[in-house]
Amino acid sequence: MTAITVIGCGPAAHRLVQRLHHHGHRGPVTVLGAEPEPAYNRALLVSALDGTLRARDLALAPFPPGVRVRTGTRAVAVDRRRRLVRGDDGTEHPYDVLVLATGSRAVLPRLTGAGGRFVPDVRVPRTLAGARPVGEGPVVVAGGGLRGVETAYALGRAGHHVTLVHPGAHPMHRLLDERAGALLTAALRDAGVALETGRRVTGVEPGRAVLDDGRSPAAGTLLLCTGARPDTALARAAGLAVRHGVVVDDRLRTSAPDVYALGDCAEHPGCQATLASAWEQADALARTLTGGDGRLRPARHVVRPRLSGLDVAVLGPPGALRRPDGGEQVVLSDPARGRYGRLVLHDGRVHAGVLVRLPRAVATVGQLYAADRPLPADRLALLLGTGGEYAESAELPDTAVVCQCNNVTKKALEQAWHSGARDLPAIAAATRATTGCGSCAALVRQVCGALAPT
Ligand SMILES: Cc1cc2nc3c(=O)[nH]c(=O)nc-3n(C[C@H](O)[C@H](O)[C@H](O)COP(=O)(O)OP(=O)(O)OC[C@H]3O[C@@H](n4cnc5c(N)ncnc54)[C@H](O)[C@@H]3O)c2cc1C
């Protein structure tokens, strides 16, 4: 029986082990996780930080019986010749197949004054430990990329005094164009967030964060959301091929025999560092390791920032909106109502886009984008959600994927509803819809609402 050892106990490792069990693997499975907690959904950390969810609400389902899980154990070396992994607690773990699921690690700025007495509570909210609820007092968030914006917005809405410091011209400048950035800026301000764009946090001093222009906003807590990169240290030390991440092929094989990698630590051309990608890879690898066809066919995913009350969707590779490469463009701008949509088309198909406060368009354009299908001729009607075959969620085709993270179709939701799942928790339990990044909750409600007798 093949012994599988998995390094990392994040969402990718968790899904892999669940799917191995599902596909009938009954050999020994060992999971080593550096964090002390059992596997949890990292994508929900912002809700732990702002106090909406308790830490235990983020827990993923228990591992199947028989799986040996060692939390609080960091793998520090891989001996490929002897086929064993060494933990920082002195334990050794033999394997026939090794899977690296080490995720990503934060990229942190050098801060002057750090470590001094009475400086702000400086944290990286990428782990349960780092995302414990923030206390009273002003909060400075360093970094206005996707995670920094979600963090600042959630804390602002929860009533904290928040300053967001971002080096770009507007928040999320790598993903959004100027107009979408302006709408996001307005929404952040409405949520009570003060913005410092074109600035960086360079240090701390008692009760303050220090900016690169010498000013120092008050800070009881400084949250570092300054980016992340694949955690490849162990893979490198083990002699595996590493570029940005651990290089893998379509079967998630690394450059070494019987060593695989998946999730945020892996580098595959069609994949991004998202939950949906990690889970897709886990599903594929579980098939491979149980003798099935596990060739990875990465789906195209829509990025839905977690900004409660502000519907934003980003389609296409990062930077594509800023460099549209001459494709046909469709633009809808309605500043009075804060709505904006821009699609960049190649051969009549969506190559990139951004949609702000256009939820119907997100549902419909998202489907066409995911399936790489041509857009209907009346593009503006599509953006407005007033025309075309998919104008309402009720008119989505049965095959439309409503929950991207868990690949749950409209038909699966309807089946769950007809089997008695009549509210969101019941639908989530039956289908797993909404349990990933959670951004599909409104659409799931809409699909189920359309089934309820009026
Ligand atoms: C705050 C935040 C919000 C996010 N929100 C979303 C979202 O809304 N939608 C979305 O799609 N994605 C989101 N993401 C991204 C998503 O969480 C990741 O894509 C996903 O967690 C990747 O899973 P993973 O298992 O590959 O890596 P990780 O979740 O990073 O887990 C890797 C685990 O491996 C452990 N590890 C590393 N090295 C070792 C070692 N040597 N020995 C033992 N253990 C080790 C780490 O401690 C970690 O626990 C978010 C991420 C963050 C940080």
UniProtKB/TrEMBL annotation:
Keyword annotations from UniProtKB, A to Z: Heme, Iron, Iron-sulfur, Metal-binding, Oxidoreductase
Metabolic or biological pathway: Nitrogen metabolism; nitrate reduction (assimilation)
InterPro entries, sorted: BFD-like_2Fe2S-bd_dom, BFD-like_2Fe2S-bd_dom_sf, FAD/NAD-bd_sf, FAD/NAD-binding_dom, NasD-like
Domain FAD/NAD(P)-binding: 4-269
Keyword Iron: yes
Segments forming domain BFD-like [2Fe-2S]-binding: 401-446
Domain of life of the organism encoding this protein: Bacteria
Named cofactor requirement(s): siroheme; [4Fe-4S] cluster
Family recorded in the similarity comment: Belongs to the nitrite and sulfite reductase 4Fe-4S domain family.
Protein name (Swiss-Prot/TrEMBL): FAD-dependent oxidoreductase
Organism name: Streptomyces thermogriseus
